[in-house]
Amino acid sequence: MRSGATAISWLRKHARLNLALSDQAMISGANFATNLVLARHLGIVEFGRFVLAWMIVLIAASLQEGLIIAPMMSLGPTIAAAERRQYFTTVLCHQALWAALVFSLLLSGVSASGHLAPGWQIAGLAVPLAAAAAAHLLQEFARRYHYTNGAAPTALGIDAVYYLGRLAAILWLFRSGTAGVSAVLWTIAAAAFLSFLLGILGFGKPRFSSAHLKRVTIRHWHFARWLGASAVMFWACNNFFIFLAGALLGAWAVGAIKAAQDVMGVTNILYQGIYNVVIVDAARHFQSAGAQALKHYLQKVALFGAAAVGAIGLAASAAPSVWLRLFYGDQYAGYGHLVQWYALAYLIGFLHVPLRVGLYVVESTSAVFIGYACVAAFSLASAYPLIRSFGVNGAMAGPVAAETIMCVVLFVLLRRRLLARPATGALSSAGNVPS
To answer: What is the pTM of this model?
Structure first.
């Protein structure tokens, strides 16, 4: 009886984290199932067109994370109650402008790709891709808004509408026998926009003030000016070794590396689920009790996350060829050692989460940019000789070294910033502009 009561007490205490992890598990599972359905029904050429087109959306989402989402989730919990409605109205304006900009750029840019890069074969997807991108970005904002305000159940609900709804709709499309990439993108756009509309039902009546718009925009710009560039560097650093491996070794290398990466993909549930809760809680710890409380909180997150990611890595590394054969077939079984490389890379990479969160909370986003700049310099300088000398193992050793460099740089910079902070948190008003 006592153990049961203890378990219930633990679940209640960590209810928000459990909901966030459940949400991310649902998203990851739905994404995996959706890609599996698309790959099977579209065929390799059409599926390739879809993947290429969706990579553009993910670049826009990565920029949105740095320019809008991270500032909102870091600063939003610290805003005084009397100013919160005006603050979130301003952020919603930022989001609407960003979605409109992405829609316009994709509409013109993808249309022009027919002349600039005809081999991509995506020019005909300009309108549905632009619509899907804008709707996806709006939906992502809505879910993160609810996490910022501690409404994890609402975020889970609107995510279910989007991710499970689009999977069901795509399955229905393929059963009709007429679906192509364009129809898939329109389906994604419709599901995302419906989820966004449901998400903003709880937003309340907007409260707009031009003076407040100016103050919040300036503060967000000071916070996010480095994060936009960091997002671009992050995207390049994460893909450069894979792209170069394909150029130097052949497409088989990219396929083997991607398969090995997907085996460890379950850790994304921890990465994203924990991040959505940790960044808000860390801001509150810092606001209420200062740098020392933030430090202790981030240490607990690092220990918990490293233990969880390490356990997954050990399970994957114990029989990597078995997992590759089970998921992808016999032709991948000989690359089990790549799974072990990724297990190490993901373990080191998880430590970025508490370190980046800490730097976001103390509004030292330039430090994150410095970290990515160091990694980018290393990647550009080392990728060619590593892959040329050690083949696919060199393509894996590079990212492991890059993750280590990133951790060291972020740790040193966060430690310096925390030592320089006062004993108590100091972010109280939307009008404060960080130095």
So the answer is: 0.66
